[in-house]
Amino acid sequence: MSLRGKKIVLAVTGSIAAYKAAFLTRLLVKQGAEVQVLMTADAEKFISPLTLATLSKKKVISALTDAEQWSDHVSLGLWADLMLVAPATANTLAKFAVGICDNIVTAVYLSAKCPVFFAPAMDLDMWKHPSTQHNIKRLVSFGNRMIPVGHGELASGLVGDGRMAEPEDIVRLLDNHFAEGNQFKGKTALVTAGPTYEPIDPVRFIGNYSSGKMGIALATGLANRGAKVNLVIGPSRISIPDHPNIKVFKVTTAQQMYDKAVQLYPECDVAIMAAAVADYRPKQEAAEKIKKSASDMTLELEKTPDIAAGLGKMKQSHQLNIGFALETNDEEANAKAKLVKKNFDFIVLNSLQDPGAGFNHDTNKITILKKDNTQKNFELKSKTEVAADIIDEIAGMLFPGNGNHN
Ligand code: C5P
Prior knowledge:
Layout: E1 7-12, H1 20-30, E2 34-39, H2 43-46, H3 49-56, H4 73-79, E3 82-88, H5 90-98, H6 104-111, E4 116-120, H7 124-128, H8 130-141, E5 145-146, E6 150-153, E7 159-163, H9 167-180, E8 188-193, E9 198-201, E10 204-206, H10 213-224, E11 228-233, E12 246-250, H11 254-264, E13 270-273, E14 280-282, E15 301-303, H12 307-314, E16 320-327, H13 331-341, E17 346-351, E18 363-364, E19 367-370, E20 375-377, E21 381-382, H14 383-398
Parallel strand pairs: 1-2, 1-3, 3-4, 4-5, 8-11, 8-13, 11-12, 13-16, 16-17
Antiparallel strand pairs: 6-7, 9-10, 14-15, 17-19, 18-21, 19-20
Cytidine-5'-monophosphate is lined by residues 192, 254, 273, 275, 277, 279, 304, 306-308, 323-325, 338, 342.
């Protein structure tokens, strides 16, 4: 019953599945949600605004302006706890993907600060078209949530994928979403992410290809589930979502990351070390740019502090430490050794031998190795989904009996 009192913007677009919006509205209202229905002009051809206004007990908004008033899409976008686009047509999804704003639904979408869920509904071939799939991927990369389409008979008579999910399933998913939003309430997480840069001279450094995507996905996932997240991130070009639960600490070197992590660690319940920290740094940083000389040059390196090992030593019984191991060979043995050495509760192994895994990809393929020698293998997934799997595992350990969604 997590929908009670929640403010939902239900955007209905022009598909035959729009008739299901009536059931959807009815179910949401029955669960105690406050529903504001928006409709595109085409949606009104499939279902009457009067039906949805009656069921939602609120006037339906279908135009940015009418003769009497201008609909304030910005305040609607801020009012909502969640925006649900159902059915979402290929046309509306394409507009969302590129930021076209030509009706009330697209205007509210662009103004919305809340989570956006969309339930596509279209014919088989439209669904399969690379344009549609590309747009959906783009929306998911923005953090929007796709509600999977069903398989079955379509309005065209064709049989295949493209049916809008059933209203009961959509409502259950939203209910879970709000329940999840409180799962980590009262918990604090520390996440390290991205590469570190170790200066050689004022213009050069030792770095690595880490993008920070995995750590940002973890921080976002935890924040969405109600955790207070301290994200300590090295130089990363990826934009970090402006989330009220995420506090960002930007650092450059391993030493700076270590100092910040050590300072923040005592207040945290879970620490995830997703950063690709340089293991060595130049012993001396040259004050001036090093000039080219005719012969070879040698850089003398020294070890950087091991953040994970340091936090492992500080760990108290109520704290969980999670590490990553990116390996190119002897993956499992290396990961297991790190698990013990750094006092992790579990380690997330990704191998560079798996296509699509590791640095800079949007996807990752992981294995979770636990202290008790158990192991879980996962498929290749988007980093957002991988983060959810890792967070589920953490929830299972922090809240045994009720937090594990596996
Ligand atoms: O030993 P290796 O660098 O492969 O271990 C990887 C794990 O240790 C990751 O979780 C990484 O974030 C962490 N680590 C760290 N500080 C270092 C090196 C690695 O926190 N200096």
